[in-house]
Write a structure and sequence with these properties.
Number of domains: 1
CATH class: Alpha Beta
CATH architecture: Roll
Structural class: alpha+beta
Helix content: 25-40%
Strand order of the largest sheet: 2-1-5-3-4
CATH superfamily: Beta-grasp domain
Radius of gyration: 12 Å
Number of helices: 3
Length: 83
């Protein structure tokens, strides 16, 4: 399981502040996790993929999309709507 925290416009746009999900075996980095989440709908895709205003932390450390994710991680996504 990983814990995902949502901040900024993501909370209102996606309708949640946090969730815990089982990490599928093929999800090994942030980019793949974001792609998995983006499949939930158009707004998820818009806010998580290609959003220059999206910032990521893993276990309270800033990370980029190529950073590995592991079971037990806390991943925070801070995003703002692109106008």
């Amino acid at each position: 399981m990983v814990k995902i925290l949502f901040f900024g416009d993501l909370v209102e746009t996606l309708g949640m502040a946090s969730e815990e999900i089982a990490l599928p075996p093929d999800i090994t980095d942030v980019e793949r996790l974001l792609f998995l989440l983006s499949r939930r709908g158009e707004m998820w895709k818009k806010m998580l993929l290609g959003n220059p205003k999206l910032h990521i932390t893993i276990n309270k450390q800033f990370a980029d999309k190529s950073a590995p994710v592991e079971d037990g991680d806390e991943i925070a996504l801070v995003g703002f709507a692109v106008v």
